[in-house]
Amino acid sequence: MIRPHDDVTTSSSGILGRIKRRQLLRLGFLGGTLLALGEMSALIYPFMKPNKIVGLGAKVPVGSTASLMAQFQSTQDVPILNTLGRFFLLHPEGGIIAAYRKCTHLGCTVPYVAAENRFHCPCHGSLYNKKTAVVEGGPAPKPLQLFHIAEQNGTLIVDTNPLNVIDRQKNEWDPSVLEIKA
Ligand code: FES
After folding, report:
1. If DSSP codes are grouped into helix, strand and coil, which group holds residue 59?
2. Residue 36: helix, strand or coil by DSSP?
3. What's residue 11's pLDDT?
4. Residue 75 to residues 4, 79, 84, 87, 131, Cα–Cα distance (Å)
5. Is 138 near ligand 1, meaning CB less than 6 Å away?
6. Ligand 1 centre from 107 Cα, in Å?
7. What is the model's pLDDT at position 45?
8. Contact by Cβ (8 Å): 92, 175
9. What DSSP element (H or E) covers 23?
10. Domain ranges, ordered by start, for the chain
11. Which positions ≥6 away from 101 have C-beta within 8 Å?
12. Which range, 29-43, 53-67, 157-171, is most confident?
């Protein structure tokens, strides 16, 4: 049987219509999936992203040995405060150390008091030497703890991880703790 010309057109356009609908559905599904994946990534990314540590716990660059020594020389060894890292750079004989400014009595933040030429804890009056952070008076049982310092490409880096400190038990200056000699 020979179909009229019109019939062929109608049936082929029906097939075309169905194919287009299927393609549209597939595209819609793909778009929806991509959108959902995008949203999930946006939600998960903040948890996956490594946090950059700032302040206490970070590795803090403090300049070159030469520049710090020049600063100590010009100020007659006034401790150099790093507020964010919570430490002072000190100049004991023979090098540079970084003292964690947390009082070894009960943990108050210890300031350097220029008028007294030493550290003086405001909480219960512990006193520490300005060059070595060894106890000079008050209830503190031991010197201020020291952060490790390393030299990388000419810059000193202070590691302010409070779980990895040099914890001096004897209240006397011991040059063997010096990591940066100058
Ligand atoms: S916390 Fe510093 S003297 Fe008590």
Report:
1. strand
2. helix
3. 58
4. 106, 9, 22, 18, 13
5. yes
6. 6
7. 61
8. yes
9. helix 5-48
10. 1-49, 59-181
11. 81, 86, 87, 88, 109, 110, 111, 119, 144
12. 157-171
CATH architecture of 59-181: 3-layer Sandwich (2.102)
Q: Is 124 in the pocket of ligand 1 (CB under 6 A)?
A: yes
129 touches 136 (CB < 8 A): yes
As beta bridge partners, residue 137 has 127
In this prediction, residue 125 carries a pLDDT of 98
Distance 5 CA to ligand 1 centre (A): 102
**Do 130 and 112 touch, CB atoms closer than 8 A?**
yes
Least confident span in 6-15, 16-25, 62-71, 125-134: 6-15
* Burial classification of residue 158, based on how many CB atoms lie within 10 Å of its CB (0-12 exposed, 13-18 middle, 19 or more buried): buried
C-alpha–C-alpha distance, residues 35 and 103, integer Å: 54
